[in-house]
Design goal:
Layout lengths: L1 H17 L14 E7 L2 E7 L3 E8 L4 E13 L2 E9 L9 E9 L2 E5 L4 E8 L8 E10 L2 E4 L5 E7 L3 E8 L5 E12 L2 E9 L5 E5 L3
């Protein structure tokens, strides 16, 4: 009996030593918030709400915008699966699901496929801002008057973490992309207090929380 116990312990220790960063299944809640990946002068920021995500790649110092992508997402075992509704860098991926092997360790996340391996760092976990989630525009203000609208194939969505935001305008049927913007924000008493643009420009908009 002792031999079996010691053997099992030895196997466990050897396994831990051989595979210290082995990937374990995760649920969606572990990813919600904002993450960043830096490569040279280029920064990529991804915001995950409960169901949706938005990614922006840009050079902050050079004030240039490289591209954006987003849609819905889920965790499937060891994989992060991204279903793209828009993708300016790889438009051929729109409407497809792309899995990436995922590993989480503390505030770091590793994403890998056959060609690349990236290490992302967490910016926030959906706090402290009170507006985290995915929101769809349901109206616009014109001369102080709110004109309501029903979101269709063409939509404008804003995705917020606890400190970051990104808005995106696109058409889910034609796969057209119209524009984006984003940056950081803060809230006071549950309301938007300040907002700093990273890219793009936007009009005053009335938003409803969508999907999460």
């Amino acid at each position: 009996m002792k031999i079996l116990t010691y053997t099992g312990l030895l196997i466990a220790l050897l396994t831990a030593g051989l595979f210290p960063n082995s990937i374990k299944p995760h649920d969606n809640a572990t990813l919600t918030g904002a993450w960043t990946f830096v490569s040279g002068s280029t920064t990529t920021t991804t915001i995950f709400s409960d169901k949706y995500f938005a990614t922006a790649t840009y050079d902050k110092d050079g004030k240039t915008f490289a591209g954006t992508a987003g849609g819905s997402w889920k965790v499937d075992g060891k994989n992060l699966v991204l279903l793209y509704e828009f993708n300016t860098l790889h438009p051929e991926q729109v409407g497809t699901s792309v899995p990436r092997e995922m590993a989480l360790k503390g505030k770091s996340m590793t994403l890998a496929n056959d060609q690349t391996k990236e290490t992302w760092n967490r910016l926030d976990d959906g706090t402290p801002g009170k507006l985290a989630g995915a929101w769809l525009i349901t109206g616009r203000y014109n001369n102080g008057e709110l004109r309501t609208m029903t979101p269709g194939a063409r939509r404008t969505m804003k995705i917020l973490s606890g400190t970051r935001f990104q808005w995106i305008a696109y058409n889910v049927d034609t796969k057209e992309f119209f524009g984006t913007g984003g940056g950081t924000y803060t809230t006071a008493d549950g309301k938007l207090d300040s907002l700093v643009q990273r890219m793009g420009a936007e009009e005053a908009q009335f938003l409803e929380k969508h999907g999460c």
